């Protein structure tokens, strides 16, 4: 598959890094020669030093036989223009990074498709939705819903209070209402077998049905974690604004912003239900004065990754049960996890998941990136007479690095075992420690 990425900024370089691992034919274009030189030196990609909106430059880059053209420069207008030109020159699919949320309204989709833009992504909006999703359960680090919530997948860190720490998976029994699909231990991601043991401080990823969440909370030793009724956001960024707007009605939201003029702007744009406070979110006395307690979720969304990490670290030490940090420097993610700061949000990785979904030939309706685990979760729709329908799960023979987390059939979620059988039209949730495209043919 040939993919052209226009823009060697933060999102473009991360996409190039992700997609180059898939052994795809990647071309990265940008007018900044220095940025391209750094990328070409350590990634197996081709670079072209041209402006993304240059017709001649796009032709020279081979846009006429491109399967996917992705424009992710910081400039929304340039991205849209580049996609329109690429489409007219023969690109099969185009994606533009945008900032104007109005463009994403369903009523506008056909208009943009008609002018050559197949899809648009707004990384800030996607990140805000991830933040709000992670607030559903205070004891969960990452949360995904499949089949409208029929099946959920979650990640949680194991503490001394967990009843499964020190046990091998084979010792947990066959009738447990959850399936452990992955274990993150240090920098290693393990797709566990029955002989693997769950250790203290592991991040365990499991699938289950909603009705068993309370039982799983007890098993994971998280009984002391209550419901989140308040969210305090440090930093009045665009992500903060959308997160405040997306927050459920039963969650009270406060935004702490150091810049006075930004506070005035926020007051006019976030609505009456959000309280805006002018101050430093790292100021412990300010938190106490404003009645921000340990039962609040603390979300650090400033433009500085280091500040967000340190703020969440301080919040954790103060006893906050739920902390979320925006960490845009990918190199800091492992460090953030080792410091135990809670949930990490990285809008580049989130955007990459959505773009990656368009590369897949199989019917994949949902792809999520596990920030800490360096892996993905994909939801495949099984086609008639596909390979997976002809064998029991234990005999399918997925390559190393893949495991089935569960199946959704007629709207009902099911945990699978080796003797389970998959049927046409099932939605299958697969944990992918390797490249998703390796198993597409199993579902086609």
Automatic annotation (TrEMBL):
The keyword Secreted does not apply. SUPFAM superfamilies: NAD(P)-binding Rossmann-fold domains, TrkA C-terminal domain-like. GO terms for cellular component: plasma membrane. Residues 141-222, 365-444 form the RCK C-terminal domain. Signal peptide: none annotated. PROSITE patterns: RCK_C, RCK_N. GO terms for molecular function: potassium ion transmembrane transporter activity. It comes from the Bacteria. The keyword Ion transport applies. Keywords: Ion transport, NAD, Potassium, Potassium transport, Transport. Residues 1-121, 228-345 form the RCK N-terminal domain. It holds the Pfam family TrkA_N. NCBIfam families: PRK09496.2-6, PRK09496.3-2. This is Trk system potassium uptake protein TrkA. It comes from Candidatus Avibacteroides avistercoris. The lineage of its organism: Bacteria, Pseudomonadati, Bacteroidota, Bacteroidia, Bacteroidales. The gene is trkA.
């Amino acid at each position: 598959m040939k993919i052209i990425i226009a823009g060697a900024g933060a999102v473009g370089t991360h996409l190039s890094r992700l997609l180059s691992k898939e052994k795809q034919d990647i071309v990265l274009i940008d007018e900044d020669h220095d940025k391209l030189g750094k990328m070409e030196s350590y990634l197996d990609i081709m670079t072209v030093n041209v402006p993304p909106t240059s017709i001649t430059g796009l032709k020279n880059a081979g846009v006429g036989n491109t399967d996917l053209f992705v424009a992710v420069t910081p400039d929304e207008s340039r991205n849209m223009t580049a996609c329109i030109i690429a489409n007219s020159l023969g690109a099969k699919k185009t994606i533009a990074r945008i900032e104007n949320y109005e463009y994403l309204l369903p009523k506008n989709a056909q208009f943009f498709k008609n002018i050559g833009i197949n899809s648009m992504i707004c990384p800030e909006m996607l990140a805000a939705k991830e933040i709000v999703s992670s607030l559903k359960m205070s004891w969960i680090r990452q949360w995904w819903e499949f089949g409208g919530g029929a099946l959920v997948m979650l990640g949680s860190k194991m503490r001394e209070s967990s009843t499964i720490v020190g046990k091998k998976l084979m010792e947990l029994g066959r009738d447990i209402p959850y399936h452990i699909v992955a274990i993150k231990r240090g920098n290693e991601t393990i797709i566990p077998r029955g002989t693997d043991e769950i250790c203290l401080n592991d991040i365990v990823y499991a699938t289950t049905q909603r009705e068993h969440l309370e039982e799983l909370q007890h098993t994971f030793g998280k009984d002391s974690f209550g419901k989140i009724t308040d969210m305090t956001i440090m930093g009045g960024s665009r992500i903060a604004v959308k997160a405040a707007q997306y927050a459920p009605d039963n969650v009270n939201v406060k935004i702490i912003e150091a810049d006075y003029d930004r506070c005035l702007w926020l007051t006019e744009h976030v609505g009456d239900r959000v309280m805006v406070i002018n101050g430093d979110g790292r100021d412990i006395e300010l938190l106490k004065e404003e009645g921000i307690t340990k039962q609040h979720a603390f979300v650090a969304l400033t433009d500085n990754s280091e500040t967000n990490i340190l703020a969440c670290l301080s919040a954790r030490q103060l006893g906050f049960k739920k902390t979320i940090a925006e960490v845009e420097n990918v190199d800091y993610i492992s460090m953030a996890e080792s410091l135990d700061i809670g949930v990490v949000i990285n809008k580049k990785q989130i955007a990459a998941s959505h773009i990656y979904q368009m590369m897949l030939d199989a019917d994949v309706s949902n792809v999520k990136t596990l920030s800490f685990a360096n892996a993905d979760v994909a939801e495949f729709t099984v086609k008639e007479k596909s390979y997976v329908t002809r064998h029991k799960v234990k005999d399918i023979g997925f390559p190393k690095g893949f495991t089935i987390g569960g199946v959704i059939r007629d709207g009902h979620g099911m945990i699978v075992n080796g003797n389970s059988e998959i049927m046409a039209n099932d939605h299958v949730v697969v944990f992918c420690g390797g490249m998703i495209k390796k198993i597409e043919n199993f579902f086609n």
